[in-house]
TrEMBL record:
Superkingdom of this protein's organism: Bacteria
CDD domains per UniProt: cyt_P460_Mc-like
Protein name, per record: Heme-binding domain-containing protein
Ranges for domain Haem-binding: 17-149
Species of provenance: Pedobacter jamesrossensis
SMART domains for the chain: Haem_bd (SM01235)
Keywords assigned by UniProt, alphabetized: Membrane, Transmembrane, Transmembrane helix
Gene3D superfamilies tied to this protein: Cytochrome P460 (3.50.70.20)
Residues that span the membrane, as ranges: 12-30
Family matches, as InterPro entries: Cytochrome_P460, Cytochrome_P460_sp, Haem-bd
Length: 321
C-alpha cells in the first residue's frame, strides 16, 4: 500500500513539473502590447474623460494600462487580440483622424453598446469590475454626445446649406461618379430609391433622420416571416440626413450624412452571419473604414437583434395566411 502511495505521489510531482514547465515556457510567447504615440486625443470635459479612461481607454486608446495578470499567457493572448481589434474600430488617442460624422456614429455606437451591457465586454469586467459603467456614467456620455447635433433651431446657415446641396443633387441626380466600392466589395448604386421603404425614423439624440429601403428579396422574406436567417441576396439601405430646424420650429432633413448598407451573402461574409456592412459618407460617398475590421464593427451592434435576423427595424406586416 505504501509503495502504491509513493508511485502516485511521484506521478503527481512529475505531472506538476510538466504543467509548471509549460506554464513558464508559454510566458516567452506572450505578446507585448505597445502604446503608440497619442496624436489627436479626444477632447472632452473632465467628467467624460474620467469615464472613458475608467471603462474604455485600456482597449480603445494608445494609453493602455495592463494589470499584472493581463500580461500572463494565455490571458495575454486574448488581451492583445482584443486591444488590437478595439483600436482598429475606434481609438480615442487618434480621435480627430475621424470625420465629424464618423465621430458621431462611433460615440453613439459606444453608448448603445454600453446601455445594452455589451461594452465593456463581460469577459473583461469579470477581471476588471472597476470598469463597469452605471446609469449615471451613461447619462453623462449622452449629454456629451449632444454636441454632435449640427443644427440648432433657426440655424439659417444650416438651412441654406441643405437647400444648396439639394439643388445640386436635383441638377445632377447623383453625388458621386463613378459608383464607389467599400473595402469588402459592396458597390454603391442609386437604384435603391425605387425600392420599398421599410421604415422612416428620427433620432433626435444624435440629430439625424433616416429612411430605410429594402430590395424585393428582403421585403418578401419579411412578409413571409422568413427572416432568421434572411435569404441570400437580401439588401438593406439606410439613408441618413442631418436634422435641421427652421425659425418656425419645423424639423426636416438637412445636409446629407451617409448611406449604410447591409448585404446578405453567406459565402462572402461568413464571420458576420452572412451580412456584409458598408457605409458611404457625405455627398462624395466616400467609403468608410481603413481596414476590414472597421466594417465588421457594425456587426457588434446588430448582434443585439439576433432574434430578428440581425436587422433592427422590421415594420412590414406579414401576409395573412
Amino acid at each position: 500500500m505504501e509503495h502504491i502511495k509513493k508511485q502516485i505521489g511521484k506521478k503527481l510531482w512529475v505531472l506538476f513539473a510538466i504543467v509548471l514547465f509549460i506554464a513558464v515556457s508559454i510566458q516567452f510567447t506572450s505578446p507585448k502590447v505597445l502604446n503608440p504615440p497619442v496624436t489627436s486625443e479626444i477632447m472632452v470635459s473632465p467628467a467624460v474623460a474620467q469615464i472613458l479612461k475608467k471603462s474604455c481607454y485600456d482597449c480603445h486608446s494608445n494609453q493602455t494600462k495592463l494589470k499584472w495578470f493581463d500580461k500572463l499567457a494565455p490571458v495575454s493572448w486574448i488581451v492583445a487580440s482584443d486591444i488590437k481589434t478595439a483600436r482598429s474600430r475606434f481609438n480615442f488617442s487618434q480621435w480627430n483622424d475621424l470625420t465629424t460624422a464618423d465621430q458621431q456614429v462611433k460615440f453613439w455606437e459606444m453608448i448603445n453598446m454600453a446601455e445594452n451591457k455589451k461594452m465593456p465586454l463581460p469577459s473583461y469586467l469579470r477581471l476588471h469590475p472597476e470598469a463597469k459603467l452605471d446609469k449615471k456614467d451613461i447619462e453623462i456620455l449622452k449629454q456629451y454626445a449632444q454636441r454632435f447635433i449640427i443644427s440648432k433651431p433657426g440655424d439659417t446657415m444650416a438651412v441654406n446649406a441643405a437647400d444648396r446641396e439639394f439643388k445640386i443633387f436635383q441638377a445632377g441626380n447623383k453625388f458621386s461618379d463613378p459608383a464607389p466600392v467599400s473595402l469588402n466589395g459592396i458597390r454603391y448604386y442609386g437604384d435603391y430609391r425605387n425600392w420599398k421603404v421599410m421604415v422612416a425614423t428620427t433620432r433626435l439624440e444624435n440629430g439625424t433622420m433616416r429612411i430605410v429601403y429594402g430590395n424585393d428579396i428582403i421585403i418578401r422574406a419579411i412578409q413571409e416571416g422568413n427572416i432568421n436567417p434572411f435569404p441570400s441576396g437580401s439588401v438593406i439601405v439606410k439613408v441618413v440626413w442631418n436634422i435641421i430646424e427652421d425659425s418656425e420650429g419645423n424639423i426636416r432633413p438637412g445636409t446629407f450624412n451617409n448611406t449604410q448598407w447591409m448585404v446578405k451573402d453567406e459565402v462572402k461574409y461568413p464571420d458576420t452571419k452572412g451580412w456584409g456592412f458598408a457605409r458611404f459618407n457625405g455627398t462624395k460617398l466616400l467609403p468608410y473604414g481603413k481596414n476590414s475590421a472597421s466594417l465588421t464593427a457594425c456587426f457588434n451592434c446588430h448582434k443585439l437583434v439576433k432574434e430578428t435576423g440581425y436587422v433592427f427595424d422590421l415594420p412590414v406586416e406579414k401576409k395573412a395566411n
